[in-house]
Amino acid sequence: MIADGTAELGKWYNIVNSTGARAYDTRPADLTVTTNEGSPVAMVLGTDYSVDQTNGLIFLLSTSTVLATAIAAGKGVKVTLAARAGAKTVTEVRTMNTSAVEGAMKFIAVNPANGDEETEYEFHKISLKADGDLSLIGDDWSKATFKGTCGESSNAQHANSPTLTIRSLNAA
User: Does the pTM of the predicted model rise above 0.70?
Assistant: First the structure.
């Protein structure tokens, strides 16, 4: 799993199958971890490596003498995972793989200072692209900023307002 000459102590690695797909929900009891050499040496959980079983990660402990010897010889690590019925499935969403997204967008703002009055902004044709960093770690709310351009929709449904419709939804 970790190619010869690329293993590093004190580093996390994804546990993947033979096609490169990530293996989530991995129990340490289902793993066999060895050095990747002619006479592989079995590694011990807690002595040579640790496992984040929920996220399918293996951590090579910096105190492992077995790994230090294998790394010095330019060897990698082989991880064998036994298949298990009932393992959790993972939903993956791949994002930000294009420079811009085009479509329609609806945003509803709620004003708690005015009796929860809602205002709906419906952009009928918009192109958005990321504009800045996406910080997911910190004490503040995460924020993603975008730049966008609006265009006119050719849809007959939006003939009275081809670009943007704003609706004020007064709370009762």
Answer: no
